Amino acid sequence: MRALAEYVMQGRRQAATVAVLFGLIPVLNLLSGAVVALVTLRKGPQEGFLVMMWALLPAGVQWLTGDTAPVIMVIGVMLLACLLRRTQSWQHVLVFTTLLGVVVQLALPLNAGYVATSEQMLDAALQDNAAMLSAEGVTAEEVKAGLLPLWMSMYGTVFVMIFSACLMIGRSWQAQLYNPGGFQQEFHNLRLPPRVMLVFVVLFGLGLAGIQPLVGWTLIFTVAPILCGLAVAHYVVAVRKLGIATLVLIYLVALMTMPLIMLVGLADSLFNLRKRLRSKTPD
Prior knowledge:
Elements: H1 2-8, H2 12-23, H3 30-43, H4 45-64, H5 69-87, H6 90-106, H7 112-128, H8 130-136, H9 140-178, H10 182-188, H11 194-208, H12 223-240, H13 244-256, H14 258-271, H15 273-280
């Protein structure tokens, strides 16, 4: 990855080439967004905008085929990179990323194809479990009415994760080239102020309680607390020198127990777990 980042930073032509080529490949088009982030962070919004326009070429082609995600990704990452470059604050970035996810969620009705496909997938899943639902005394329609808003909120949630991933990759590339260890330190120190964290948790709870329109945004509010919880995990593994295997295990557990990771992020925001750990760690 370092070699790729070095090539990108050789000039606009190289950056545009990488952005376009990776933009043509599903999944790997995340790296196209990361290239836009890297150029913006290092060379500024004007240069980043020019590279973004190149990245929008393959994204625009995919838009014409019905996939709007690449265009939204590239534009969103560009905005977030500008914010991070200006503020040097991941706290601001996490808040703005969450708001951006809500905006994307509000635009969901414009993506009728995604809505129809998602409903079909949910209907198929409920039909496959119709016998179990019947044994529980509930109908598929009742379950669908309760699950559909949360299911649809995955749309904005996925984009929040995509934005965050692209920006973090771009930032890590920047650190590798110009500030070794800088991104690791930033991520280890990632922590939301208590008031902001409590707002996210309250909004998440109100969404679970069925309060409109928050019910359609519920999962969006979980991404920032989860990232903060993972930051704590990375810090503990680094300080205790537990090794990569422990970190992999933590991620596997996180996939199954996301609420627990959220609670870790909340506890760190309220009680500064890392500060307490530092005080107990011998020099």
